[in-house]
Amino acid sequence: MPELTMVQAVRDALAVALAENPRVIVMGEDVGKAGGVFRATEGLQAEFGEDRVLDTPLAENGILGTAIGMALYGLRPIAEIQFSDFIYPGFDQIVSEMAKFRYRSAGQYTSPVVVRAPAGGGIKGGLYHSQSPEAFFAHTAGLKVVTPATPRDAKGLLLAAVSDPDPVIFLEPKRLYRSTREEVPRAISRSPWARRVWRAPATRGPS
Predict the structure, then answer these.
(1) Is residue 205's pLDDT more than 50?
(2) Are 197 and 188 in contact (CB under 8 A)?
């Protein structure tokens, strides 16, 4: 198994998800040609095409609203918010729409959107690039909130999030993006992705 940083493990998980399921779409500001601010999506547009890895306008409300519409029509969008600090313009889309479709439709519809965002401080980013908004979403019915601690966690949990039938807020600690390396499985297996691609170490507690 290769040793990967967390940002490499995130990119690897996105590549697995795109390769495994043609319904998976990666979208966000600069995620395509530029590969994202932290290069978490580097090379994915070249590998999978502009129809699968979409550059969007700088409009978080629009990114999230579009992702909800895609999900309701059967796609599996992974929407990147460039920094978690910028998620607030789309807050209502997340808590009032995305999180509520299963309840609102009596289980007839779900909104399987993964919202990825770099979060937290530690990079001297100042007030607009250092916030940790997980508490807002952890108290919202209908949402799962995930923050990985290691590269291995990042890949396994992101694949699990993509395969979840309900929305997941996936907050990546930017300070940990390149601070450590860890052996991460590279195998691509059929669904359910998380069970076959990722195995937690035996010494780890419940995940």
Answers:
(1) no
(2) yes
Amino acid at 149: A
The CATH architecture of the domain made up of 3-197 is 3-Layer(aba) Sandwich (3.40)
Token pair for 74:
């059967």
Strand order in the sheet with 168-173: 53-55, 24-28, 76-80, 114-119, 168-173, 144-146
pLDDT given for residue 31 in this prediction:
98
Distance separating alpha carbons of residues 43 and 25, to the nearest angstrom: 14
8 A C-beta contact, residue 68 and residue 97: yes
H helices, E strands: number in the chain: 8, 8
Question: What pTM does this model have?
Answer: 0.88
| Per-residue CA distances from 134 to 35, 56, 77, 147, 192 (Å) | 25, 24, 20, 9, 26
Q: Write out pLDDT tens, residues 139-153.
A: 999 999 999 999 999
Catalytic residues: 129
